[in-house]
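Figure 3 (text version): structure tokens given as input.
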């Protein structure tokens, strides 16, 4: 059996294409994923490769944690338990609301 380590990854980014399977809509979100990988670099590569296939564009912080597995190790690296958590981009909303409150000069 290959020597693999279990990781949990959290990556900030955006859904750029809706995905019915994961019930996602375009906008900011965190992608979470659990993986068995040879090292943290391979784990990071996995989320960078898989995310875009699911409509996710990673463009922020990536956190990688060594964690206890919920799925047994296999002979090859693999990912599972992919999740997306949408959030409101408060900074963008604040900027937009400032634009809306400005008086219009005619």
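Below: residues designed for each position.
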């Amino acid at each position: 059996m290959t020597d693999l380590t279990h990781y949990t990854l959290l990556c900030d980014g955006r859904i750029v294409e809706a995905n019915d399977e994961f019930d996602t809509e375009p906008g900011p979100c965190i992608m979470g994923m659990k993986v068995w990988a040879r090292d943290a670099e391979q784990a990071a590569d996995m989320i960078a490769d898989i995310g875009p296939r699911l409509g996710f564009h990673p463009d922020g912080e990536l956190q990688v944690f060594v964690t206890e597995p919920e799925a047994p190790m296999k002979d090859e690296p693999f990912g599972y338990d992919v999740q997306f958590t949408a959030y409101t981009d408060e900074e963008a909303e604040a900027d937009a609301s400032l634009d809306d409150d400005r008086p219009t000069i005619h």
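Helices lie at 40-53, 90-101.
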